[in-house]
Each structure stands twice: as structure tokens, then as C-alpha cells.
């Protein structure tokens, strides 16, 4: 009986010591420098039956496209979100990014303006943005052979920050000058084949058509009047593909005789 009592007492002390060690490790988790990274996932709430769950989506890129921009717009700013693991600081800190030459196809001064490898993470924030000015002039406009230029960035440690999670230590910036087909297009049979000029005409009818993720009038056949208006417009107003010179109709491209 006495030996059982002693074993129980020893077990109690072991548990107390382990708990103390765990508490200490948690308390000291961010006593070192904060850990910097590119934002690489987002969380959304999704309703499943009567329950609401969180869904995490991972990504490793930002895309800046001039496809919807007016012709006079010759530059735009891409904003890449940067975050850290740790405590918010009451003073500005610096982080550093490096262009990865093996994965980069964009050219500095041609497709984007030069930017400093050393950036400021402003005080009082958990997230900040790395701003890169993208230049339109030399981005291809081809619909038939679309080209994306890529700028790949790697995060580097500094005096203010250690490195964060592995998947957040790099990111890609894609740049283009064409209108990528929206995700919902192929699911709308009345629109027939995709052409960026057809989509732009839809947007001119109603700006809600600019939604890239989902069709804005997909209930009660609400888009029917727009599809018919698009068909009539293309019949009435000659509209041509800039590369081939073919005339665009709702259901076909027609080559023009010289």
C-alpha cells in the first residue's frame, strides 16, 4: 500500500513538471523574432446542412491583368499581402524579398518597375502589402496565344524577422494584357464559344457581368435577355477579332475576304 502511495505521488510530480514545461514553451513561443511570410491561404465560412464550417483555400500567386482596363491605362499596381507570426510591433520593421531568377520570366523595367528588395512592415499591423508597379506596353494582347509573364519572389530573413511557414516563403506575380475566360462561361450554353470582346459587350450591358467567379444572373434564367441582346448586337454591329480580322458572331467566327 505504501509503495502504491509513493508511485502515485511521483506520478503527480511528473505531471506537474510536464505541465510547467508545456506552459513555458507556449509562453516562449514568440519571444524570439516574429516570423515573416507571404499570405498563402484564405478562410471562408461554408454552410453544410445546419452547421457552419471553415474552409481553407491555398494559393501561391497574384495576377494583375489589364484585360478589362481602358486602353489609356498603361500601368497598375499589384498588391501582394505579407503577414507574420508573432506579436504586433509599435515600430516599423523591415523585411526583404529576393527575385528568383530561375522562375522569373518578367523583365525589370519592361514588364514592371524596379522596386527595393528591402521593404517596410508598418507598425501596429498584422498584415501589410508589397506594392509592385506593372507596365502594360510590352504585355502581349494575343487571344489565340495568350502569354503570362511571371515574377517569382522569395522571402528572406532580416534583423527584424525570421522566416515563417514553408509554403509562405515564396509567391508568384503573373502579369497579362488579355481577358481570361471567366469560370462560369462554359456553363452558359447560350453564349457559345468564348471571345473577350463578347464578354466586354456583356459587361457594357451590366457591370455585374464582370464577376469572374460566378454568373450573376443564373437564377430563373435571368441572363436570357442579355444573351439575346448580345446576339442582336453582334448581328447589327460588325465586331472583329483583332488578330485574324474575323467577324465575331454569337456562335461563330467568320473570316473576311480581302
Automatic annotation (TrEMBL):
<dbReference type="InterPro" id="IPR032299">
    <property type="entry name" value="DUF4843"/>
</dbReference>
<dbReference type="Pfam" id="PF16132">
    <property type="entry name" value="DUF4843"/>
</dbReference>
<protein>
    <submittedName>
        <fullName>DUF4843 domain-containing protein</fullName>
    </submittedName>
</protein>
Amino acid at each position: 500500500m505504501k509503495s502504491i502511495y509513493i508511485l502515485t505521488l511521483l506520478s503527480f510530480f511528473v505531471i506537474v513538471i510536464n505541465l510547467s514545461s508545456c506552459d513555458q514553451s507556449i509562453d516562449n513561443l514568440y519571444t524570439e523574432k516574429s516570423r515573416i511570410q507571404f499570405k498563402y491561404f484564405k478562410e471562408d465560412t461554408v454552410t453544410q446542412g445546419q452547421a457552419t464550417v471553415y474552409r481553407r483555400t491555398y494559393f501561391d500567386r497574384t495576377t494583375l491583368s489589364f484585360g478589362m482596363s481602358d486602353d489609356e491605362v498603361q500601368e497598375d499596381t499589384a498588391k501582394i499581402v505579407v503577414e507574420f507570426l508573432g506579436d504586433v510591433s509599435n515600430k516599423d520593421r523591415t523585411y526583404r524579398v529576393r527575385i528568383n531568377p530561375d522562375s522569373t520570366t518578367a523583365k525589370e523595367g519592361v514588364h514592371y518597375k524596379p522596386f527595393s528588395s528591402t521593404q517596410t512592415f508598418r507598425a501596429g499591423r498584422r498584415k501589410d502589402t508589397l506594392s509592385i508597379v506593372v507596365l502594360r506596353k510590352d504585355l502581349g494582347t494575343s487571344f489565340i496565344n495568350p502569354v503570362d509573364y511571371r515574377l517569382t519572389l522569395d522571402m528572406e530573413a532580416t534583423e527584424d524577422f525570421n522566416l515563417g511557414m514553408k509554403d509562405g516563403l515564396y509567391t508568384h506575380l503573373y502579369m497579362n494584357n488579355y481577358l481570361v475566360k471567366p469560370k462560369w462561361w462554359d456553363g452558359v450554353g447560350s453564349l457559345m464559344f468564348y471571345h473577350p470582346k463578347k464578354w466586354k459587350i456583356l459587361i457594357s450591358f451590366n457591370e455585374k457581368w464582370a464577376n469572374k467567379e460566378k454568373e450573376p444572373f443564373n437564377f430563373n434564367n435571368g441572363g436570357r435577355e442579355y444573351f439575346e441582346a448580345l446576339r442582336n448586337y453582334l448581328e447589327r454591329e460588325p465586331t472583329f477579332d483583332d488578330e485574324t480580322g474575323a467577324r465575331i458572331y454569337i456562335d461563330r467566327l467568320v473570316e473576311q475576304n480581302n
